[in-house]
UniProtKB/TrEMBL annotation:
GO annotations of cellular component type: mitochondrial inner membrane
Residues annotated as signal peptide: none
Localization terms from the record: Mitochondrion inner membrane
Domain of life: Eukaryota
Keyword Ligase: no
Protein name per Swiss-Prot or TrEMBL: Cytochrome b
One Gene Ontology term of the molecular function aspect: metal ion binding
TM region(s), chain numbering: 35-52
SUPFAM superfamilies named among the record's database cross-references: a domain/subunit of cytochrome bc1 complex (Ubiquinol-cytochrome c reductase) (SSF81648)
GN (gene name): cytb
InterPro entries in alphabetical order: Cyt_b/b6_C, Cyt_b/b6_C_sf, Cyt_b/b6_N, Cytb/b6-like_sf
Length: 79
């Protein structure tokens, strides 16, 4: 109820100055600011993915496989 009446009439201004001059409209300023932030985040993530794809990879994935040697921790169920 409080927010309904506050947005309907506006907040109280005890100094008597025009408070409309201090307001910034939401759509052109904050929308562009948020879209710029999202664009910068996506640019950073795309740079990581495209130029440094192995940056966060596990080093064990890059050791060459030996088809004649089974790792000791892998055992068939019937042993």
């Amino acid at each position: 109820v409080h927010l309904l009446f506050l947005h309907e009439t506006g907040s109280n201004n005890p100094t008597g100055l025009n408070s409309d001059a201090d307001k910034i409209p939401f759509h052109p300023y904050y929308t562009i600011k948020d879209l710029l932030g999202v664009f910068m985040l996506l640019l950073f993530l795309m740079t990581l993915v495209l130029f440094f794809p192995d940056l966060l990879g596990d080093p064990d994935n890059y050791t060459p496989a030996n088809p004649l040697n089974t790792p000791p921790h892998i055992k068939p169920e019937w042993y």
